[in-house]
Write a structure and sequence with these properties.
Elements (H helix, E strand, L loop, with lengths): L12 H15 L8 H15 L1 H11 L3 H10 L7 H12 L12 H7 L1
Length: 114
């Protein structure tokens, strides 16, 4: 592994718990010398090489900023464009699909009636 450089990475609680769990498993292996920083660096490097391109769309979708998107759209609107159409298209892009209702009876009814 290459030299470590100091950097700051703030993780949410779930990521910290996952890293701690992986670190505990790895440090208990025979003949392994690892630190949480080295493990985190390895995970990020390997994710970038193997998975980033595949998951880039999902990452972008989960971190989409609708306010910034609307600001960008509004700054780029020409006077010749129909404002209602532009806003309608923008809102359609922003809308998230509603939760689909499950077909059939709810599980609670299935258990009670069966």
């Amino acid at each position: 592994m290459s030299k470590l450089k100091s950097g700051r990475l703030i993780l949410d609680e779930g990521a910290i718990a996952a890293l701690s769990s992986m670190y505990e498993e790895m440090k208990n292996q025979k003949c392994i010398k690892i630190t949480p920083s080295k493990l985190g660096s390895w995970i990020i490097s390997e994710f970038y090489k193997s998975y980033f391109t595949r998951y880039k769309g999902k990452i972008a979708k989960e971190h989409f900023n609708s306010k910034e998107y609307l600001k960008k759209i509004m700054n780029n609107v020409d006077e010749s464009e129909n404002l209602e159409d532009v806003l309608r298209q923008a809102l359609n892009h922003i809308k998230q699909p509603a939760n689909k209702k499950t077909r059939g009876r709810p599980k609670s009814q299935q258990v009670e009636n069966d």
